[in-house]
Amino acid sequence: MYGSGRSVGKVEGNHSGGSNQSPGRSPRLPRSPRLGHRRTNSSGGSGLGGPGGKTLSMENIQSLNAAYATSSPMYLSDNEVVTSGPDLPKSTMTLGRSGGRVPYSVRTTVMGSSPNISTGAPGSVSTDAIAFGDHHMPSTLASTVPHSLRQARDNTIMDLQTQLKEVLRENELLRKEVDVKESKLSSSMNSIKTFWSPELKKERALRKDEASKIAVWKEQYRVVQEENQHIQMTIQALQDELRIQRDLNQLFQQDSSICPGEPLTAELTEENFQRLHGEHERQAKELFLLRKTLEEMELRIDTQKQTLCARDESIKKLLEMLQSKGLSAKANEEDHERTRRLADAEMHIHHLESLLEQREKEMVLLREDLHRRFEGAPESAKTKALQTVIEMKDSKISSLERGLRDLEDEIQMLKSNGALSTEEREEEMKQMEVYRSHSKFMKNKVEQLKDELAQGEDLKKQAAELQQEVSAIDQVKQNLSRKDTELLGLQTKLETLTNQFSDSKQHIDVLKESLTAKEQRAAILQTEVDALRLRLEEKEATLNKKSKQIQEMSEEKGTLNGEIHDLKDMLDVKERKVNVLQKKIENLQEQLKDKEKQMTSLKERVKSLQTDTSNTDTALTTLEEALAEKERIIERLKEQRDRDEREKSEELDSSRKSSKS
Question: Is-above-0.70 flag for pTM?
Answer without folding.
Answer: no
